[in-house]
From TrEMBL:
It is found in: Bacterial flagellum basal body. Keywords: Bacterial flagellum, Cell projection, Cilium, Flagellum. One of its GO terms (biological process) is bacterial-type flagellum-dependent swarming motility. This is Flagellar basal-body rod protein FlgF. It comes from Paraburkholderia dinghuensis. The keyword RNA-binding does not apply. The basal body constitutes a major portion of the flagellar organelle and consists of five rings (E,L,P,S, and M) mounted on a central rod. The rod consists of about 26 subunits of FlgG in the distal portion, and FlgB, FlgC and FlgF are thought to build up the proximal portion of the rod with about 6 subunits each. One of its GO terms (cellular component) is bacterial-type flagellum basal body, rod. Pfam families: Flg_bb_rod, Flg_bbr_C, LlgE_F_G_D1. Residues 5-35 form the Flagellar basal body rod protein N-terminal domain. PROSITE patterns: FLAGELLA_BB_ROD. Belongs to the flagella basal body rod proteins family.
Amino acid sequence: MDRLIYTAMSGATQSLEQQAVVANNLANVSTTGFRAQLANFRDVPMAFGDGSTVDDHTTRTFVLSATPGSDMTPGAISKTGNPLDIAIQGQGFIAVQGADGNEAYTRAGNLHVDENGQLVTANNLQVIGTGGPIAVPPGSAVTIGSDGTVSAIAPGSQPVAIAMIDQIKFVNPPAGTLTRSDDGLFRTADGNPADADPTVQIATEAIEGSNVNPVAAMVSMITNARQFQMQTKLLQTADQNDQTANQLLQFT
């Protein structure tokens, strides 16, 4: 009975965790540049004994969470006409300064200039350039070139007076070297800033949508719900068998 109870319990727990991941993905189906989170699990056999004798054997198998990953498939790019909107084409990330002051990376390119003259994301995270966060002259008209160059025209100046302010830092670390943090940003595994990659291509006056497939997410939610129901039924069955066994033992 012990085997059934603990096996079903571990399966039900992981079904709940996977449901939470899918629900979070579905909630961000309209979030700019969002990368779907993947729920990974692995089986962990529990053996009786230390394996040194032939009598030692696996008694049950548990389910445990493995290192979670992210779906790096690019999302759809849509034109906005906003000169501060950028969308990365293919692989790559925009470097920003996280709330902890360290460098982090995002695909959300819906940028704007805040009241302090800083170029920031929709979540007010400062965008990093060649020498740190990018600042622009107050009241100037800002544009972003196809290579990430940030240019500005001072109020009342002619278009020929446009001046380059800085260049946005784009990175493209090797696959598997970035981890998703709780704030939704990506960071290098060792915590060191990634090198700038000049080959990253962007589309201007456009943003990248979420790569979450809402239909697939809904199907996953239904599947997880049915798996959880199956696991809870196994727990109920184990309890009923336990009660029946206790009744039989009373008459022996």
